[in-house]
Amino acid sequence: MNVIAVSRKAAHGIAKPNVDVIRLIAGYGIEGDAHYGTTVQHRSRVAQNPDQLNLRQVHLIHAELFDELEAKGFSVSPGDMGENITTRAIDLLALPAGAELALGEAARIRITGLRNPCKQLNGHAPGLMNAVLDRGEDGALIRKAGVMGIVLDSGDVRAGDTIVATLPEGERRALEPV
Prior knowledge:
Elements lengths: L1 E6 L10 E2 L1 E5 L3 E2 L12 H6 L9 E5 H9 L13 E4 L11 E4 L3 E8 L13 H4 L1 E3 L5 E3 L3 E7 L1 E4 L4 E4 L12
Parallel strand pairs: 5-6
Antiparallel strand pairs: 1-2, 1-6, 3-4, 3-12, 5-11, 7-8, 7-13, 8-11, 9-10
């Protein structure tokens, strides 16, 4: 399980350029990223209630999604869907709420929920938003656009860093959109 790319962008918008290193700050998110802060930074959520806790400090996507999208005719690279950390060989969507990921030497995040994909993805490629949604056998909506988390321990994260997952003890809850 490892990090294959890290991305950040100071302004709001979907695509985030890849960088050599991102600095995670406990309780705030990614230094220099538009979603940095203790309270919600997502513009539509700020409009609803600017005092909400920021459960979306870090966005992670599994690179296997890009492989799946390529098979459907989409060209998506790390950072294109607004994620901060692109991973490989960890089933992010199967993690329970509260799972913790140790990244690199010191950084640690707690997974808070699923990313609810938005229509801005269609700005990258028409139809991309629908391509990251699916239906289960029971008809339930499956969101595949990654997971969100909060920073527990500060540290630098780079491409090539390992990821160690720790699952919560006791009853485990499936991820829901945040």
